[in-house]
Amino acid sequence: MMRNDLARSPWGWLLLSLAVAALHLGTVTAAGAEQAWIRAEVRLNLRTGPGSSYRILATLQTGDEITLLQRAEGWTKVRASDRKEGWIPAGYLQSKAPPTIRLTQLEAQVTELRGQLETVTAERERLAQTNARLEEVDDLQASQITELDRENERLKGGQRWPEWITGAGVLCVGMLLGMLWNRSTGRRSGPRIRL
Domain total for the chain? Predict the structure, then answer.
């Protein structure tokens, strides 16, 4: 009603034109959408235009996250989380989430980090057990390598006397068996050369 009375008065068109021009000049469109939250313990009416005479679309309250779309003198155009766009009085927004919202976000982060910590701790325990098993295998293999190195050195390093003794023993036993066989057949040993 007030707008109709204003439009009928002689100064009404001039005032209305000046208000529209001021609104247009005072409006700054954000280059990128900026996130903000309703501050303090308030309830704000989301209106169809920048003024208290415009129709109410919805009610916003503390902690509601909104997207800033435009700023005008004394009013801010926003988009609510339910995708409704409208105007609220300027001065009720803050760039940080209110403490109650931040507390909820931090509690969610703590829960997530605890889950990650439990996963990492379980993985660390599994890796420690695997490492212990691998160290046992490594120790066993190291002792086997040491034993093989000793045997290799023994075989290479001039310790062939056991082989020589075995060979001499076989030769002696063969000669002894030959002598015994020769005696048992009753032949005398003599020169075998005949002319």
Answer: 2
